[in-house]
Amino acid sequence: MRELSFAQALNEALAQAMETDPRVFIMGEDIGVYGGAFGVTGDLVHRFGEDRVIDTPIAELGGAGAAVGAALAGSRPILEFQFSDFAGLAIEQIVNQAAKIRYMLGGKTHVPVVFRMPSGSGTGAAAQHSQSLEAWFGHVPGLKVIQPSTPHDAKGMLLAAIEDPDPVLIFEHKLLYKIKGHVPEEQYLVPIGKAAVVRAGQHATVVGSAIMVHRALEAAEILAAEGIDIEVIDLRSIRPIDTATIIASVKKTTRLCCIYEGVKTLGIGAEVSALIAESEAFDYLDAPIMRLGGAESPIPYSPILEKAAVPQTDIIVAALRNLVKGQS
Amino acid sequence: MRELSFAQALNEALAQAMETDPRVFIMGEDIGVYGGAFGVTGDLVHRFGEDRVIDTPIAELGGAGAAVGAALAGSRPILEFQFSDFAGLAIEQIVNQAAKIRYMLGGKTHVPVVFRMPSGSGTGAAAQHSQSLEAWFGHVPGLKVIQPSTPHDAKGMLLAAIEDPDPVLIFEHKLLYKIKGHVPEEQYLVPIGKAAVVRAGQHATVVGSAIMVHRALEAAEILAAEGIDIEVIDLRSIRPIDTATIIASVKKTTRLCCIYEGVKTLGIGAEVSALIAESEAFDYLDAPIMRLGGAESPIPYSPILEKAAVPQTDIIVAALRNLVKGQS
Amino acid sequence: MTSSPKKPAPRTPVLHPNVRPFYAQHSPDELKEALRRMHLVRKFEETAEDSYIRGLTHGTMHLSIGQEASAVGTTMSLRKTDYITSTHRGHGHCIGKGAEAKYMFAEFFGKEEGYCRGRGGSMHIADPESGNLGANGIVGGGLPIAVGAALAIKQQKRDDVAVCFFGDGASNEGAFHESLNMAAIWKLPVIFVCENNGYGMSVSTKRSMAVANVADRAPAYNMPGVIVDGNNMADVVEAMMVATARARGGEGPTLIECKTYRTRGHSRSDRNKYRTKEEIEEWKLRDPIPHFVNELISHGILDATEADTIEKSVDAEIKAGFDFAVAGTNPTPQSLTRDVYAREIV
Amino acid sequence: MTSSPKKPAPRTPVLHPNVRPFYAQHSPDELKEALRRMHLVRKFEETAEDSYIRGLTHGTMHLSIGQEASAVGTTMSLRKTDYITSTHRGHGHCIGKGAEAKYMFAEFFGKEEGYCRGRGGSMHIADPESGNLGANGIVGGGLPIAVGAALAIKQQKRDDVAVCFFGDGASNEGAFHESLNMAAIWKLPVIFVCENNGYGMSVSTKRSMAVANVADRAPAYNMPGVIVDGNNMADVVEAMMVATARARGGEGPTLIECKTYRTRGHSRSDRNKYRTKEEIEEWKLRDPIPHFVNELISHGILDATEADTIEKSVDAEIKAGFDFAVAGTNPTPQSLTRDVYAREIV
Ligand SMILES: Cc1ncc(C[n+]2csc(CCOP(=O)(O)OP(=O)(O)O)c2C)c(N)n1
Ligand SMILES: Cc1ncc(C[n+]2csc(CCOP(=O)(O)OP(=O)(O)O)c2C)c(N)n1
Ligand SMILES: [Mg+2]
Ligand SMILES: [Mg+2]
Known about the structure:
Number of helices of chain A: 12
Structural class of chain C: alpha/beta
Number of strands of chain A: 14
Radius of gyration of chain A: 20 Å
Oligomer: heterotetramer
Bound molecules: thiamine diphosphate, magnesium ion
Structural class of chain A: alpha/beta
Number of helices of chain C: 12
Order of helices and strands of chain A: EHEHEHEHHEHEHEEEEHEEHEHEHH
Radius of gyration of chain C: 20 Å
C-alpha cells in the first residue's frame, strides 16, 4: 500500500489534474521555483512550465480576481493562498464575486475556481498566520467548503474540487501536511458534501474536522480502555454539510460533542449543534450538546498559550468522559 | 416625547460625540457634502468642517487601515462603510489588524475605532448590496459587534461604541433608517453586551435582532389573539452575546426560536441555538430549537424573490404557532 | 492597406490622406449601427428612468446618459469572443457589446425573461452570451476579473481581448493597482477603459487623486496611457483601434481614459449638491449623440431623414422592449435557490 | 544654521563646504550611537538565528541581516513622538526606534517580560512606548495604518511624522496604492520607506513589477520618489533629513526607496532556489556595517580601538539580553484571554 504525505497527495492531485485537463492551471505566491511555502506545489513548475504554474505578485485581491476571471473565460484556475489568513484581502472576490456571479447572472454562467487555504495554528506563527476561517466561508451560499483530514481525502477531495463547476475552498490544516497515509495512484474523487464515520461507537458522537479528527480518534482510544465507546465523524465538508450522517449517529448514541479549532463562538460546531437541536434527533438527546472550540482570543505566539488556545487530546478526553459519564 | 428616525438618532450621536470629544472624527465615502448614502451624516460637514468629516477616496482597505492607524495615534475615528458588503475589501484591516493588534502587542495598546455597517436586504439593491454579515465579525475575538433595532438604542449604542476602548462594528439595517421612535436629547449610553426582553411571554422565546425584532413583535401580536403568548428578546449585541438573558427566558418558556436575516447556515441563530443546547436550559426544552434564517442563496433583485429570501411576518407567525402548538 | 469604406477595419489603423481612420476604416453601415446603439443606450436609460419615477421598478439605477460615445465607441468593433467587464453604470457597455433592449428591460423589471432571470437587476444586467462577463456592484470588482479573462485568453492561445470598464473613482481602489500591474508584467491582452466623468459619486477627481488624469498612473505600470475626448466617437474608437491591435498582437495592455460626464445624478438618491447647474448644462451642450450625427452628416454618410429614421426605429425597439418586459413572467418564490450552484447540492 | 558637529541636527539639512550633511549635522555621539545600533540589530539577529537553529524557539523568523543601514539610518533621528509602522522583517526598525534587546529577546522566547508578553513573537515584536505602532505579519498591513497615524498627527496639530516601512513585494499590494494616494491628497506627514531587497520572498522585482524601481510609482501620486543606496548610512540619512523636513513642514509625504539586500534567506524554510550564491556573496561584500565603520574612521570620528569597544559593548548587551530572556517567565494558560479587550467583557 503506497503511502504519501498529505502535502504529496495534494501535489499529486494537482499534477494529475494538469496532465488530464489542459484548462487546469495553478497560481499563487511563491508556488513556482520556491515550491510553495509548505512545499505543496514542489517541482510542478518544472514539469508544467511557468504558463501553468504562475507566481503572482503579492496581491491577494488581484490574484483571486484573476482566478475568477480565468474561470469565467473557460480555464480551471487553482489559487493557492500562502496562508488562509491572507484571504482576508480577497474576501471581496471570493464572496462578492465568485460566490454570487452565477446567481446574479441567472445561472447563465458558472465559476469553476478552487482556492487552497493553508490554515490553522500549531506552528508558532502567531495571530495573523494561524486562523481557522472555514466557518466564514461556510456561511456563504454559492461557495463549497471542504476540509480533508487524511492524505487519501486530500487527493480525492482536491480532485473533486477541481472537477466541480462551482467555486470550492479547500482548507488544509498546516499540521496535516506531513502526516502520511495510503493514497491510491490513480485519479479518484471523494465526493463533496459527505461526512465519514471514521470510528463506530455506542456512547457518544464526536463531530470534528481536519486535525481535530485525529485528536478525537486518540481520545476515543484512550476512553475505550475505560469502556467508553465513542463514534467519530469526520465532517470533511463544511458547505454543504452532511446533516443526515450526523443525525443518524446521534439517534444511535444520544450524545453529541462538536470539536473544532476555529473560534468557538459562531464556529462550525455552532452549526452542527443547531442542526441537531432543530432536527428529529433532538428527542433522542440524553445530554446537552457539547462544543469544544478554539479560545475566544487571537492565536498567541507562546507555545504554552498556543496549545491552550485550541482543543488538545487531554481536554477532549476529559470532556467526553464528562459527556458520557456525567462526571467532571 | 421627542421622536427621531433611526438615521437622525445616529446623526445626533455622531454630533454629540464630536462636540464633547475633540478626538472624535468621522470618515467614509460621500459622508461630506453628499451627507452619506443613507443620509446619516447629513450636514455634519458644515457643522464640524472637512477635517473632522472626511470624504475618503473609494478605497475601503485604505480607509479602514487609516482609521486603525488614527485610533492607535490617539484619535477616535468612526468609519462609515457605504454598504457593509464593501467591508469585504477591508476584512484584512478589521480582522487581522484592528481585532488583533492589542492582543499581539500584549495589551500595551488598544484600538478605539468604530465601523458603521449599513446592512440588510429589502431595498432592491441585489446580491452585492444586501448582505447581513454580522455573524462573520461575531466570530472574531477582539471585535465587538452590535445591532440596534430602535432609534433609542441606535443613539445609545453608537455613543457606547465611540466611548469603548476596543473596536466596535455597529450594524445598521437599512430598512430601519426611516423608522421613528423616542430618543432622549441628552447623551446616554446603552451598554454593549446586554440583550433586552422587549415583550414578556409564557409560551415561547423568540430571539432576534435589528429588523427581525419588529417582525417578531408583529407576529407576537397576531398570535396573542390566538392565546399564544410570545416572549421577544432583542439581542442587540452579537459579540459579546448576552447568554444569561436568553437562558433565563428559555427556562421560563421552554421553547426557543431564533430569527435572523443573515444566511441560516452559520448565522447568529446557530450560535444562539448552540448556547442554549449546551446550557442548563437544555433540560427545560420542550421542543427542538427552531431557526428562521435567511435563505441559502445570494439576495436576488426581483422583489418577489427578495421577500422570499428573508423571514417575513407571515412565515414567523406560522412557525411560532407550530413551535408552540406543534401544528404545521 | 486600404481606405475603402466597404472593407472591415484592418488590424492596425491606417492614416488616409484626408479622412481620419475612424471614418476611413469603418463602413457606413458600421457607423450607422454605432449611432443606432448610442440612441438605444440613451433611450433605454430614459425609459428606465421614467419607469423608475413612475414606481414601476424598485432598487436603484445608475444612468450613463452623456457617456454613450465611450460605451459604444469602445465596444463597436469588438468580436463576440472578446470579453468585457462592466460596472454599476453598465447599460451602455451591455448594449455596445450586443445585448438586446427587450431582455435588458425584462431584467430591469425583475422578470424571468431578463438576461439574469430577474436575479440581477439594473446593476447587474449582463449577457454572458455576448462576451459580457458581468456588470458589477462592487467598484473596481471587474478589474482583476478582466485580467484573469485575458490570462485565460493567453493560455488558450486566442487573439481575443478583454476590455475592462471602470470609473475615475474606481482607479483609487487597490484592485486598480494590482490589476494593472499583473496585466503589465504578464503582457496580457487587456484594455483598461477608464470612463472619467469627473466624479466618484460626490467626490471630484480633484479631491480623490493627486494627479490630473487617471492616465498619469499608467507609467507606474510601464503601460501606455491614452487620454481621449470621451464624448467624441472618432477619438474613442481610434484609441481603441490602436489598443486592440496592440493587445491582439501580444504587445500587452493599454489604459485609455475617456474624459466624459454623466449629466444625470449618480443614482436616484443624488441631489447633486457637489456640483453646479452650470457645469451640468455646459456638458449637456457637449452631448455625444448630436455631435456624432453632425459628423456623420458632414462626412456625407448620413442625411437628416436617415438620421430621423434611425432614431424612430430605436423608439420602436424601445417601446416593444418595454412592453415585452411588462408582459414578462415574474419568478416564483419556489425558484429562489435555483442557480446558486451549477451542480445542485445533493 | 550651523555645521558644528556638537549641536543636534537642525530641522532642514545644510550643506557644509567640505563635509556632507550627514556628517556635518550629527554629533560624533549620534554617529557612534547609530553604529552601535547597527551592531545591535546584526548581533540580535545572529543570536536569534542561532537560538532558532539550536531549537530554543519555535515559529518562524525573518532576518534583516545586510539591511541595517536602512533600518537604523531611517530611524536614528526620529523623535519618540514620531511613529513607525514596521514589517515582518522588523527587528532593525524596532531597535532603531529605541527598543532594548533584552525585551526583544524575551518576546522572541515567548516570555511575559517580552515587549508583547510573549503573545507576538518575532514577527510582531514592537514597543508602542517608543512610537512603534507594530510590526506586521501582513505584507502591506502597515501602509494604511501609517497614513492614519499621520492623519491623527495632523488633526492633533502636531509636527511629528509617521515612517512607514515596507518591502518591494508589498508595493504590489493594493494597500500601497490606496495608502500613497490618501497620503498625497491629504498632504500627510508620512515617509514611505521601501526597503527594496530585490525579492518578495522568491519573486524578484523583475518578475513582480513592470517598472525598474518602486520609486517610479511615486509620480502616480504626485509624490517625490527618492532612490538611495540602502547600504550607505549617509545616503539613507540625508534622504530622510529632506523627507522629514518636508513632512514636518506640512509639505506632504515622500517615498524613499532604499536599495538593499537580505543576505539570509527569506525565512527559516528558504532554500534560496531563486537566486545564485554569487549574487549573495557579491552583496555580502557591500555589508553596510564595515562600510560605515570605515567612513567614521576616515572622517576621524572613530578609531579602531573605539570601534572595537563599541562592538564589545554590544556583545555584552546581547549576552545579557539573551540570559535575561532565557531566565524569563512563561505565560500561564490561565492568562490566555487576557488583553483580548481593553475593557474586559462582562
Ligand atoms: C467597493 C465599493 N465601494 C463603494 C461603492 C458605492 N459606489 C457605487 S458607484 C460609486 C462611485 C463610483 O465612481 P466611479 O468609479 O468614478 O464610477 P461612476 O459612478 O462615476 O461611473 C460608489 C462610491 C461600491 N458600489 N463599491
Ligand atoms: C498579505 C500577505 N501576503 C503574503 C504574505 C507571505 N509573505 C511574508 S513576507 C513575504 C515577502 C514580502 O516581500 P517584501 O515586501 O519585498 O519584503 P521582504 O520580505 O523582502 O523584506 C511574503 C510573500 C504575507 N505575510 N502577507
Ligand atoms: Mg466617475
Ligand atoms: Mg523584498
